[in-house]
From TrEMBL:
Coiled-coil residue windows: none
Domain of life where this protein originates: Bacteria
InterPro entries: Redoxin, Thioredoxin-like_sf, Thioredoxin_domain, Thioredoxin_ResA/DsbE_sf
Protein name according to UniProt: TlpA disulfide reductase family protein
Database matches in PROSITE patterns: THIOREDOXIN_2 (PS51352)
Pfam families: Redoxin
Domain Thioredoxin: 17-170
Length: 170
């Protein structure tokens, strides 16, 4: 009986371990010190604090001209669709947290921003899952359930993003 119980616990432990490996913890702190809880899921990302919202996960650089051109559009979208959209942005050109805070203030950014250093596990996870080679801007758009519905390298026009929000929030 003891062997059976031991075997049972080993199997349960292994199953829990494998499940945990399939659902990695991708959480990070934004530049304000807020922890964003994220777990990988089969079809996208599980972000409990953003459930029910369309999520744009954007990777950008502070020296990238198309990225800089996109910022005012993203600010407008976050303002206009604040009840149904959440933008989470990761700066991937090596800016440190203090410099990024200044950059966010200077640009008037009204959405969640973090450094690549703070979100390294998330960056690596997205690179592997989306076969992202590092080109920026890079956006992953998820519907209200956290399922990835759109992946794009390059600047995306604001009207296209508005149509995407409408489609993904249904």
């Amino acid at each position: 009986m003891k062997k059976i119980l031991t075997l049972f616990f080993i199997i349960v432990s292994l199953g829990a371990y494998l499940y945990a490996e399939e659902q990695p913890d991708l959480s990070f702190k934004d530049i304000n010190g807020t922890t964003i809880q994220i777990k990988g899921s089969e079809l996208g990302l599980d972000i409990p604090s953003l459930k029910g919202k369309v999520v744009f996960l954007e990777f950008f650089g502070h020296r990238c001209p198309p990225c800089l051109k996109s910022i005012p559009h993203l600010i407008d979208l976050q303002t206009k669709y604040k009840d149904k959209l959440a933008i989470v942005s990761v700066e991937v050109q090596g800016m440190n947290e203090e410099a990024l805070k200044d950059f966010v203030f200077e640009k008037g950014i009204n959405y969640t921003v973090t450094t690549e250093q703070n979100a390294r596990i998330l960056v690596n996870y997205i690179a592997a899952r989306a076969e992202w080679s590092g080109s920026i801007p890079f956006m992953v758009a998820m519907d209200t359930k956290g399922d990835v519905q759109f992946v794009q390298v390059g600047m995306i026009p604001q009207d296209y993003l508005e149509n995407l929000i409408a489609q993904l929030s249904k």
